[in-house]
Structure formats: structure tokens, C-alpha cells
Specification:
alpha+beta; 2 helices
Length: 111
């Protein structure tokens, strides 16, 4: 399995419960194909730098998961067809970057 990060931009006019239900559907889809979900981050409404599909604002969600490429291809297909999704991006990230940040060790001098 490979680590992925998915950013989804939803229509800002939707209710937050609707967005969370849609995210649950999408994560359920990839979980049914054997994916292991990581961190889910709901960024909330953000203003766009330019107009997208006649909108100036969107609701951002970022997901991390470890999955097979076929599962992420299916997620990409479903997100492309979803009316509530303005934009999405599925990125494969390097394994050493995935997961929680490692604790930084600092050298301590003995006195």
C-alpha cells in the first residue's frame, strides 16, 4: 500500500453536516477497498484567489490514507462525478513524509 493525500474543495453553500456525510461516504468507499485512513482535516471555508465554477469560496477538506492505486483511482472517478465537489486532487506522497512528525532530538551538553 502507498500513502496518499487527498484535497477536496466542496461548494461553500452546503451545510457542514452534508459535507461531513459526503466525506464519510468517500472514506467508506476507499476503506471498503482495503485502505487505511490517516488524518482527516476539515479546514473550513476559504476564499479562492480566482473564480472557480462561478464561485469565490469553497470548503476545504484534506485526507490522508494508505491504499492501493486502484482504490485511489476509484475515489478520483467518484470525486470527478460528484456535483458537490468543485475541485479535488489526489497526491501520492513519499513514505518518509507520511504520518506524524518525528520528535526532533537536540544534543544536550553534559555540564
Amino acid at each position: 500500500m502507498r500513502p496518499y493525500e487527498v484535497m477536496i474543495i466542496f461548494d461553500a453553500g452546503l451545510e457542514e453536516e452534508t459535507i461531513r456525510a459526503a466525506v464519510d461516504r468517500y472514506t467508506g468507499l476507499i476503506e471498503s477497498k482495503g485502505a487505511e485512513l490517516g488524518h482527516r482535516d476539515f479546514w473550513g471555508k476559504r476564499r479562492f484567489a480566482y473564480e472557480l465554477k462561478h464561485r469565490w469560496e469553497g470548503y476545504y477538506v484534506v485526507l490522508q490514507a494508505k491504499a492501493e492505486p486502484a482504490a485511489m483511482d476509484e475515489l478520483h472517478r467518484v470525486l470527478s462525478l460528484a456535483d458537490e465537489v468543485i475541485r479535488h486532487k489526489v497526491l501520492r506522497i513519499p513514505a518518509e513524509v507520511y504520518g506524524p512528525p518525528a520528535a526532533a532530538s537536540s544534543p544536550v551538553a553534559d555540564a
